[in-house]
Amino acid sequence: MSADAILPPNTNAPFGASNALNGSFSAFKYPNGSFSALNALKGSLGVSVDAEGVEEEFDELVRRMAPEIADAVDHLEIAAALEAGGLSDQAAAKYGYPDVFLLAEALCEVVPRQPREPEPLPVIWSAKPATHLLRGVLFGLPGVCYTAAAGVLADRAALWVVVISLFTSWSLGQSLSYLGHIQLGRADADAAARVLRRGMITGCAIVLAVSAVAALLMGSSAAALAMAAGQGFYLLAATVLLVLNAEYALLAALAPGVVAGLTLSGGPLWTGLAVTVLATMILAIVRTRTTRPRPLSKHDLVASLPYGAFGFIAAGLLVLPLFWPSGQGHGLAALPISVSMGVAEWSLVAYRRRATFALRDNHVFTEFAKDTRLGLLRAVAVFLAVAAALSTVVLLATGAITDPAALLRYGAYLALGGALFVALVLQACGSTGTAVAACAVALVAQLWTGDSVIGQLVVNTALLAGLGGCAAVVLSQSVRHG
Protein backbone atom coordinates (compact mmCIF):
# COMPACT_ATOMS: atom_id res chain seq x y z
CA MET A 1 0.00 0.00 0.00
CA SER A 2 1.35 3.42 -0.93
CA ALA A 3 1.25 6.68 0.90
CA ASP A 4 -1.40 7.88 -1.59
CA ALA A 5 -4.04 6.03 0.44
CA ILE A 6 -3.40 8.19 3.45
CA LEU A 7 -5.54 11.29 4.00
CA PRO A 8 -3.63 14.54 3.47
CA PRO A 9 -2.28 16.09 6.65
CA ASN A 10 -3.18 19.48 8.07
CA THR A 11 -0.29 21.55 6.80
CA ASN A 12 -1.09 24.41 9.18
CA ALA A 13 -0.58 22.22 12.24
CA PRO A 14 2.74 22.05 14.07
CA PHE A 15 5.04 19.07 13.71
CA GLY A 16 3.55 15.94 15.23
CA ALA A 17 0.15 17.51 15.91
CA SER A 18 -2.55 15.01 16.69
CA ASN A 19 -5.05 16.34 14.15
CA ALA A 20 -2.69 15.43 11.30
CA LEU A 21 -2.09 11.98 12.68
CA ASN A 22 -5.77 11.33 13.34
CA GLY A 23 -6.54 12.01 9.71
CA SER A 24 -4.01 9.50 8.47
CA PHE A 25 -4.46 6.75 11.05
CA SER A 26 -8.11 6.26 10.22
CA ALA A 27 -7.27 5.24 6.65
CA PHE A 28 -4.04 3.28 6.88
CA LYS A 29 -3.89 -0.23 8.33
CA TYR A 30 -1.95 -3.27 7.42
CA PRO A 31 -3.73 -6.56 6.71
CA ASN A 32 -2.49 -8.08 9.94
CA GLY A 33 -4.24 -5.41 11.99
CA SER A 34 -1.03 -3.62 12.97
CA PHE A 35 -0.06 -0.09 12.09
CA SER A 36 3.10 1.14 10.47
CA ALA A 37 4.62 4.03 12.35
CA LEU A 38 7.17 4.54 9.63
CA ASN A 39 4.70 4.94 6.77
CA ALA A 40 2.36 7.01 8.94
CA LEU A 41 5.17 9.44 9.54
CA LYS A 42 6.03 9.48 5.86
CA GLY A 43 2.44 10.20 4.83
CA SER A 44 1.30 12.60 7.52
CA LEU A 45 4.47 14.48 8.38
CA GLY A 46 6.20 14.41 5.02
CA VAL A 47 9.51 13.24 6.49
CA SER A 48 11.86 10.58 5.29
CA VAL A 49 12.31 7.79 7.79
CA ASP A 50 14.16 4.76 6.57
CA ALA A 51 14.52 2.38 9.48
CA GLU A 52 12.84 -1.01 9.33
CA GLY A 53 13.51 -1.47 13.01
CA VAL A 54 11.06 1.31 13.88
CA GLU A 55 8.16 -0.59 12.35
CA GLU A 56 9.15 -3.78 14.13
CA GLU A 57 9.49 -1.98 17.47
CA PHE A 58 6.07 -0.38 17.04
CA ASP A 59 4.36 -3.62 16.05
CA GLU A 60 5.92 -5.37 19.02
CA LEU A 61 4.62 -2.63 21.30
CA VAL A 62 1.13 -3.07 19.81
CA ARG A 63 1.19 -6.81 20.49
CA ARG A 64 2.43 -6.30 24.04
CA MET A 65 -0.02 -3.50 24.91
CA ALA A 66 -3.05 -4.83 23.02
CA PRO A 67 -5.11 -5.87 26.10
CA GLU A 68 -4.56 -2.52 27.85
CA ILE A 69 -5.23 -0.57 24.64
CA ALA A 70 -8.47 -2.41 23.91
CA ASP A 71 -9.73 -1.78 27.44
CA ALA A 72 -8.67 1.88 27.65
CA VAL A 73 -11.19 4.72 27.77
CA ASP A 74 -9.04 7.05 25.64
CA HIS A 75 -5.46 7.69 24.57
CA LEU A 76 -4.69 9.48 27.84
CA GLU A 77 -5.20 6.23 29.74
CA ILE A 78 -2.82 4.51 27.32
CA ALA A 79 -0.26 7.29 27.80
CA ALA A 80 -0.53 6.83 31.56
CA ALA A 81 0.05 3.09 31.15
CA LEU A 82 3.09 3.73 28.97
CA GLU A 83 4.59 6.17 31.45
CA ALA A 84 3.82 3.80 34.35
CA GLY A 85 5.79 1.18 32.44
CA GLY A 86 8.80 3.49 32.29
CA LEU A 87 8.41 4.80 28.73
CA SER A 88 9.34 8.49 28.48
CA ASP A 89 9.16 11.00 25.64
CA GLN A 90 12.74 10.18 24.76
CA ALA A 91 11.92 6.48 24.58
CA ALA A 92 8.89 7.20 22.37
CA ALA A 93 11.27 8.49 19.69
CA LYS A 94 12.46 4.98 18.90
CA TYR A 95 8.91 4.18 17.78
CA GLY A 96 8.89 7.19 15.45
CA TYR A 97 6.95 9.62 17.71
CA PRO A 98 8.20 12.74 19.45
CA ASP A 99 6.28 12.15 22.73
CA VAL A 100 4.30 9.57 24.67
CA PHE A 101 0.92 11.16 23.98
CA LEU A 102 1.23 10.96 20.21
CA LEU A 103 2.44 7.39 20.53
CA ALA A 104 -0.60 6.65 22.68
CA GLU A 105 -2.89 8.17 20.03
CA ALA A 106 -1.34 5.97 17.38
CA LEU A 107 -1.80 2.88 19.53
CA CYS A 108 -5.40 3.86 20.21
CA GLU A 109 -6.08 4.03 16.46
CA VAL A 110 -4.47 0.68 15.77
CA VAL A 111 -6.30 -1.53 18.25
CA PRO A 112 -10.13 -1.41 18.24
CA ARG A 113 -11.76 -0.76 21.60
CA GLN A 114 -13.07 -3.94 23.19
CA PRO A 115 -13.54 -3.12 26.87
CA ARG A 116 -13.68 -6.08 29.17
CA GLU A 117 -16.76 -6.73 31.25
CA PRO A 118 -16.17 -5.37 34.77
CA GLU A 119 -15.89 -7.77 37.64
CA PRO A 120 -19.26 -8.29 39.34
CA LEU A 121 -19.66 -5.96 42.30
CA PRO A 122 -20.26 -7.49 45.72
CA VAL A 123 -23.93 -7.58 46.67
CA ILE A 124 -24.16 -5.44 49.81
CA TRP A 125 -27.97 -5.54 49.97
CA SER A 126 -28.60 -9.20 50.66
CA ALA A 127 -32.09 -10.01 51.94
CA LYS A 128 -32.59 -12.76 54.51
CA PRO A 129 -36.29 -13.65 54.37
CA ALA A 130 -36.32 -15.82 57.50
CA THR A 131 -34.60 -13.12 59.56
CA HIS A 132 -36.91 -10.37 58.32
CA LEU A 133 -40.00 -12.45 59.01
CA LEU A 134 -38.72 -13.19 62.51
CA ARG A 135 -38.19 -9.50 63.11
CA GLY A 136 -41.80 -8.89 62.09
CA VAL A 137 -42.92 -11.43 64.69
CA LEU A 138 -40.75 -9.69 67.29
CA PHE A 139 -42.40 -6.36 66.44
CA GLY A 140 -45.86 -7.83 66.96
CA LEU A 141 -45.43 -10.15 69.96
CA PRO A 142 -45.17 -7.40 72.61
CA GLY A 143 -48.80 -6.62 71.80
CA VAL A 144 -49.72 -9.75 73.77
CA CYS A 145 -48.26 -8.15 76.87
CA TYR A 146 -50.38 -5.03 76.39
CA THR A 147 -53.48 -7.15 76.02
CA ALA A 148 -52.69 -8.96 79.25
CA ALA A 149 -52.31 -5.65 81.10
CA ALA A 150 -55.60 -4.24 79.81
CA GLY A 151 -56.87 -3.91 83.37
CA VAL A 152 -54.21 -1.34 84.21
CA LEU A 153 -54.74 0.58 80.97
CA ALA A 154 -58.48 0.90 81.63
CA ASP A 155 -57.65 3.88 83.84
CA ARG A 156 -57.30 7.01 81.68
CA ALA A 157 -54.43 8.42 83.73
CA ALA A 158 -52.54 5.13 83.53
CA LEU A 159 -53.04 5.04 79.75
CA TRP A 160 -51.57 8.54 79.44
CA VAL A 161 -48.51 7.58 81.48
CA VAL A 162 -47.88 4.48 79.35
CA VAL A 163 -48.35 6.45 76.12
CA ILE A 164 -45.97 9.21 77.26
CA SER A 165 -43.41 6.50 78.01
CA LEU A 166 -44.04 5.02 74.56
CA PHE A 167 -43.46 8.37 72.84
CA THR A 168 -40.25 8.91 74.79
CA SER A 169 -38.81 5.44 74.24
CA TRP A 170 -39.70 5.38 70.52
CA SER A 171 -37.94 8.70 69.97
CA LEU A 172 -34.86 7.60 71.88
CA GLY A 173 -34.92 4.18 70.23
CA GLN A 174 -34.92 5.65 66.72
CA SER A 175 -31.96 7.89 67.52
CA LEU A 176 -30.14 5.03 69.22
CA SER A 177 -30.74 2.75 66.23
CA TYR A 178 -29.28 5.37 63.90
CA LEU A 179 -26.19 5.86 66.07
CA GLY A 180 -25.57 2.13 66.28
CA HIS A 181 -26.01 1.52 62.56
CA ILE A 182 -23.81 4.47 61.59
CA GLN A 183 -20.93 3.01 63.64
CA LEU A 184 -21.45 -0.47 62.22
CA GLY A 185 -21.45 1.08 58.75
CA ARG A 186 -17.98 2.41 59.54
CA ALA A 187 -16.88 -1.12 60.44
CA ASP A 188 -16.27 -0.07 64.05
CA ALA A 189 -17.99 -2.69 66.20
CA ASP A 190 -16.41 -1.36 69.40
CA ALA A 191 -17.80 2.11 68.79
CA ALA A 192 -21.21 0.63 68.02
CA ALA A 193 -21.20 -1.40 71.23
CA ARG A 194 -20.13 1.61 73.25
CA VAL A 195 -22.78 3.96 71.87
CA LEU A 196 -25.52 1.34 72.12
CA ARG A 197 -24.75 0.57 75.76
CA ARG A 198 -24.43 4.19 76.80
CA GLY A 199 -27.49 5.16 74.81
CA MET A 200 -29.59 2.39 76.33
CA ILE A 201 -28.60 3.24 79.90
CA THR A 202 -29.11 6.96 79.37
CA GLY A 203 -32.40 6.34 77.59
CA CYS A 204 -33.69 4.13 80.39
CA ALA A 205 -32.90 6.86 82.90
CA ILE A 206 -34.78 9.41 80.78
CA VAL A 207 -37.79 7.10 80.35
CA LEU A 208 -37.93 6.43 84.09
CA ALA A 209 -37.75 10.13 84.94
CA VAL A 210 -40.38 11.14 82.36
CA SER A 211 -42.72 8.33 83.40
CA ALA A 212 -42.34 9.17 87.09
CA VAL A 213 -43.13 12.85 86.49
CA ALA A 214 -46.15 11.93 84.32
CA ALA A 215 -47.46 9.48 86.93
CA LEU A 216 -47.00 12.06 89.70
CA LEU A 217 -48.79 14.82 87.80
CA MET A 218 -51.68 12.60 86.77
CA GLY A 219 -52.03 10.76 90.04
CA SER A 220 -51.56 7.39 88.38
CA SER A 221 -50.94 4.09 90.18
CA ALA A 222 -47.62 2.41 90.87
CA ALA A 223 -48.65 -0.42 88.52
CA ALA A 224 -49.02 2.08 85.66
CA LEU A 225 -45.59 3.55 86.44
CA ALA A 226 -44.05 0.06 86.53
CA MET A 227 -45.61 -0.81 83.18
CA ALA A 228 -44.54 2.49 81.61
CA ALA A 229 -40.95 2.12 82.81
CA GLY A 230 -40.77 -1.56 81.87
CA GLN A 231 -42.14 -0.80 78.43
CA GLY A 232 -39.45 1.83 77.84
CA PHE A 233 -36.65 -0.37 79.20
CA TYR A 234 -37.72 -3.23 76.94
CA LEU A 235 -38.01 -1.10 73.81
CA LEU A 236 -34.55 0.39 74.24
CA ALA A 237 -32.90 -2.94 75.08
CA ALA A 238 -34.71 -4.62 72.18
CA THR A 239 -33.44 -1.87 69.87
CA VAL A 240 -29.87 -2.70 70.89
CA LEU A 241 -30.37 -6.42 70.19
CA LEU A 242 -32.02 -5.78 66.82
CA VAL A 243 -29.23 -3.44 65.72
CA LEU A 244 -26.74 -6.18 66.61
CA ASN A 245 -28.80 -8.80 64.72
CA ALA A 246 -29.50 -10.77 67.89
CA GLU A 247 -33.07 -11.68 66.90
CA TYR A 248 -33.06 -15.16 68.39
CA ALA A 249 -31.72 -13.88 71.71
CA LEU A 250 -34.52 -11.32 71.79
CA LEU A 251 -37.08 -14.01 71.00
CA ALA A 252 -35.84 -16.08 73.91
CA ALA A 253 -36.04 -13.08 76.25
CA LEU A 254 -39.53 -12.22 75.03
CA ALA A 255 -40.89 -15.74 75.52
CA PRO A 256 -41.62 -15.54 79.30
CA GLY A 257 -43.70 -12.38 78.92
CA VAL A 258 -45.64 -13.74 75.95
CA VAL A 259 -46.37 -17.06 77.68
CA ALA A 260 -47.41 -15.22 80.85
CA GLY A 261 -49.63 -12.88 78.86
CA LEU A 262 -51.41 -15.80 77.19
CA THR A 263 -51.83 -18.08 80.20
CA LEU A 264 -51.44 -16.19 83.49
CA SER A 265 -52.97 -13.32 85.41
CA GLY A 266 -52.30 -11.30 88.53
CA GLY A 267 -48.92 -11.65 90.21
CA PRO A 268 -47.58 -14.46 87.97
CA LEU A 269 -48.41 -12.34 84.91
CA TRP A 270 -46.41 -9.38 86.20
CA THR A 271 -43.56 -11.71 87.13
CA GLY A 272 -43.40 -13.03 83.57
CA LEU A 273 -43.38 -9.51 82.15
CA ALA A 274 -40.63 -8.48 84.58
CA VAL A 275 -38.51 -11.50 83.58
CA THR A 276 -38.80 -10.50 79.92
CA VAL A 277 -37.72 -6.92 80.61
CA LEU A 278 -34.77 -7.93 82.79
CA ALA A 279 -33.63 -10.68 80.40
CA THR A 280 -33.71 -8.29 77.46
CA MET A 281 -31.67 -5.68 79.31
CA ILE A 282 -29.11 -8.23 80.52
CA LEU A 283 -28.68 -9.62 77.00
CA ALA A 284 -28.24 -6.09 75.62
CA ILE A 285 -25.55 -5.33 78.21
CA VAL A 286 -23.74 -8.62 77.54
CA ARG A 287 -23.85 -8.09 73.76
CA THR A 288 -22.33 -4.60 74.07
CA ARG A 289 -19.26 -5.56 76.07
CA THR A 290 -16.15 -3.74 74.85
CA THR A 291 -12.73 -2.97 76.30
CA ARG A 292 -11.98 -0.05 73.97
CA PRO A 293 -13.87 3.16 74.72
CA ARG A 294 -15.07 5.19 71.76
CA PRO A 295 -16.26 8.79 72.24
CA LEU A 296 -19.45 9.81 70.45
CA SER A 297 -18.99 12.78 68.14
CA LYS A 298 -21.33 15.75 68.45
CA HIS A 299 -21.95 15.56 64.70
CA ASP A 300 -23.36 12.04 64.97
CA LEU A 301 -25.46 13.00 67.96
CA VAL A 302 -26.97 15.97 66.13
CA ALA A 303 -27.52 13.85 63.00
CA SER A 304 -29.57 11.39 65.07
CA LEU A 305 -32.11 14.02 66.15
CA PRO A 306 -34.29 13.85 62.99
CA TYR A 307 -34.61 10.11 63.49
CA GLY A 308 -35.76 10.67 67.05
CA ALA A 309 -38.28 13.21 65.79
CA PHE A 310 -39.56 10.68 63.27
CA GLY A 311 -40.00 8.09 66.04
CA PHE A 312 -42.03 10.57 68.09
CA ILE A 313 -44.26 11.55 65.16
CA ALA A 314 -44.76 7.95 63.99
CA ALA A 315 -45.81 7.00 67.52
CA GLY A 316 -48.30 9.85 67.47
CA LEU A 317 -49.82 8.74 64.16
CA LEU A 318 -50.22 5.18 65.45
CA VAL A 319 -51.40 5.91 68.98
CA LEU A 320 -53.46 9.08 68.62
CA PRO A 321 -56.67 7.28 67.50
CA LEU A 322 -56.66 5.33 70.78
CA PHE A 323 -57.55 8.51 72.66
CA TRP A 324 -60.68 9.35 70.69
CA PRO A 325 -64.03 8.20 72.13
CA SER A 326 -64.24 5.67 69.29
CA GLY A 327 -60.71 4.45 70.01
CA GLN A 328 -61.75 0.92 70.96
CA GLY A 329 -60.49 -1.46 68.32
CA HIS A 330 -57.76 0.83 66.97
CA GLY A 331 -55.05 -1.05 68.86
CA LEU A 332 -56.03 -4.31 67.20
CA ALA A 333 -56.16 -2.59 63.80
CA ALA A 334 -52.54 -1.47 64.26
CA LEU A 335 -51.34 -5.02 65.00
CA PRO A 336 -51.11 -6.18 61.32
CA ILE A 337 -49.00 -3.10 60.55
CA SER A 338 -46.58 -3.93 63.38
CA VAL A 339 -46.18 -7.53 62.24
CA SER A 340 -45.78 -6.39 58.60
CA MET A 341 -42.73 -4.31 59.54
CA GLY A 342 -40.60 -7.42 59.05
CA VAL A 343 -41.83 -7.61 55.46
CA ALA A 344 -41.20 -3.86 55.22
CA GLU A 345 -37.52 -4.43 56.05
CA TRP A 346 -37.37 -7.26 53.52
CA SER A 347 -38.95 -5.10 50.80
CA LEU A 348 -36.63 -2.20 51.66
CA VAL A 349 -33.51 -4.36 51.29
CA ALA A 350 -34.82 -5.80 48.02
CA TYR A 351 -35.49 -2.29 46.74
CA ARG A 352 -31.97 -1.09 47.62
CA ARG A 353 -30.56 -4.14 45.87
CA ARG A 354 -32.56 -3.49 42.69
CA ALA A 355 -31.63 0.21 42.75
CA THR A 356 -27.95 -0.70 43.04
CA PHE A 357 -28.22 -3.01 40.03
CA ALA A 358 -30.07 -0.30 38.09
CA LEU A 359 -27.29 2.17 38.90
CA ARG A 360 -24.71 -0.28 37.60
CA ASP A 361 -26.51 -1.54 34.50
CA ASN A 362 -28.17 1.62 33.11
CA HIS A 363 -26.22 4.19 31.11
CA VAL A 364 -29.17 6.54 30.47
CA PHE A 365 -30.65 8.61 33.27
CA THR A 366 -34.25 8.17 32.16
CA GLU A 367 -33.91 4.38 32.20
CA PHE A 368 -32.38 4.45 35.66
CA ALA A 369 -35.17 6.71 36.96
CA LYS A 370 -37.78 4.40 35.45
CA ASP A 371 -36.23 1.33 37.07
CA THR A 372 -36.03 2.94 40.52
CA ARG A 373 -39.63 4.13 40.36
CA LEU A 374 -40.92 0.74 39.27
CA GLY A 375 -38.85 -0.86 42.02
CA LEU A 376 -40.36 1.46 44.61
CA LEU A 377 -43.87 0.75 43.35
CA ARG A 378 -43.20 -2.97 43.58
CA ALA A 379 -41.81 -2.70 47.13
CA VAL A 380 -44.81 -0.69 48.35
CA ALA A 381 -47.22 -3.10 46.65
CA VAL A 382 -45.59 -6.12 48.33
CA PHE A 383 -45.78 -4.50 51.76
CA LEU A 384 -49.39 -3.40 51.33
CA ALA A 385 -50.43 -6.84 50.04
CA VAL A 386 -48.97 -8.56 53.13
CA ALA A 387 -50.42 -5.98 55.52
CA ALA A 388 -53.84 -6.27 53.83
CA ALA A 389 -53.74 -10.05 54.11
CA LEU A 390 -52.91 -9.89 57.82
CA SER A 391 -55.64 -7.30 58.38
CA THR A 392 -58.13 -9.60 56.67
CA VAL A 393 -57.10 -12.46 58.96
CA VAL A 394 -57.66 -10.28 62.05
CA LEU A 395 -61.02 -9.07 60.73
CA LEU A 396 -62.15 -12.63 60.11
CA ALA A 397 -60.89 -13.80 63.50
CA THR A 398 -62.75 -11.04 65.32
CA GLY A 399 -65.91 -11.30 63.21
CA ALA A 400 -65.63 -7.66 62.15
CA ILE A 401 -65.29 -8.35 58.44
CA THR A 402 -68.85 -7.15 57.83
CA ASP A 403 -68.58 -4.01 59.98
CA PRO A 404 -68.18 -0.91 57.72
CA ALA A 405 -66.60 1.11 60.53
CA ALA A 406 -64.03 -1.62 61.17
CA LEU A 407 -63.20 -1.80 57.46
CA LEU A 408 -62.59 1.95 57.40
CA ARG A 409 -60.47 1.73 60.53
CA TYR A 410 -58.29 -1.07 59.13
CA GLY A 411 -58.07 0.74 55.79
CA ALA A 412 -56.81 3.86 57.54
CA TYR A 413 -54.08 1.91 59.31
CA LEU A 414 -53.20 0.13 56.07
CA ALA A 415 -52.66 3.49 54.35
CA LEU A 416 -50.63 4.67 57.36
CA GLY A 417 -48.48 1.54 57.19
CA GLY A 418 -47.76 2.17 53.51
CA ALA A 419 -46.86 5.78 54.24
CA LEU A 420 -44.51 4.82 57.06
CA PHE A 421 -42.87 2.26 54.79
CA VAL A 422 -42.19 4.90 52.12
CA ALA A 423 -40.88 7.18 54.89
CA LEU A 424 -38.45 4.44 55.94
CA VAL A 425 -37.24 4.11 52.34
CA LEU A 426 -36.66 7.85 52.15
CA GLN A 427 -34.74 7.78 55.43
CA ALA A 428 -32.61 4.87 54.24
CA CYS A 429 -31.72 6.87 51.11
CA GLY A 430 -30.76 10.01 53.01
CA SER A 431 -33.97 12.05 52.81
CA THR A 432 -35.02 12.04 56.44
CA GLY A 433 -36.16 15.65 56.48
CA THR A 434 -38.81 15.04 53.84
CA ALA A 435 -40.22 12.07 55.75
CA VAL A 436 -40.29 13.92 59.08
CA ALA A 437 -41.93 17.02 57.62
CA ALA A 438 -44.65 15.09 55.78
CA CYS A 439 -45.48 12.93 58.80
CA ALA A 440 -45.59 16.01 61.06
CA VAL A 441 -48.12 17.66 58.73
CA ALA A 442 -50.20 14.47 58.77
CA LEU A 443 -50.16 14.37 62.59
CA VAL A 444 -51.39 17.97 62.77
CA ALA A 445 -54.09 17.14 60.23
CA GLN A 446 -55.25 14.19 62.33
CA LEU A 447 -55.47 16.41 65.39
CA TRP A 448 -57.57 18.84 63.36
CA THR A 449 -59.95 16.20 61.99
CA GLY A 450 -60.47 14.77 65.48
CA ASP A 451 -62.47 11.62 66.16
CA SER A 452 -63.28 10.72 62.58
CA VAL A 453 -62.33 7.41 61.01
CA ILE A 454 -63.01 8.85 57.57
CA GLY A 455 -60.78 11.82 58.38
CA GLN A 456 -58.06 9.44 59.53
CA LEU A 457 -58.40 7.46 56.30
CA VAL A 458 -58.23 10.61 54.14
CA VAL A 459 -55.19 12.00 56.01
CA ASN A 460 -53.25 8.71 55.89
CA THR A 461 -54.07 8.16 52.22
CA ALA A 462 -52.93 11.70 51.41
CA LEU A 463 -49.73 11.06 53.39
CA LEU A 464 -49.08 7.88 51.40
CA ALA A 465 -49.70 9.67 48.10
CA GLY A 466 -47.56 12.67 49.07
CA LEU A 467 -44.62 10.63 50.31
CA GLY A 468 -44.92 8.35 47.29
CA GLY A 469 -44.72 11.33 44.92
CA CYS A 470 -41.71 12.76 46.77
CA ALA A 471 -40.00 9.38 46.74
CA ALA A 472 -40.59 8.99 42.99
CA VAL A 473 -38.68 12.23 42.44
CA VAL A 474 -36.01 11.98 45.13
CA LEU A 475 -35.14 8.32 44.65
CA SER A 476 -34.69 8.71 40.90
CA GLN A 477 -31.47 10.59 41.65
CA SER A 478 -28.42 8.37 41.35
CA VAL A 479 -26.72 10.09 44.30
CA ARG A 480 -29.33 8.54 46.62
CA HIS A 481 -28.08 5.04 45.82
CA GLY A 482 -24.32 5.51 45.82
Automatic annotation (TrEMBL):
Transmembrane segments: 157-180, 200-226, 233-255, 267-286, 307-324, 330-351, 376-401, 407-426, 433-448, 454-475
Alphabetical keyword list: Membrane, Transmembrane, Transmembrane helix
Name of the protein this chain belongs to: Uncharacterized protein
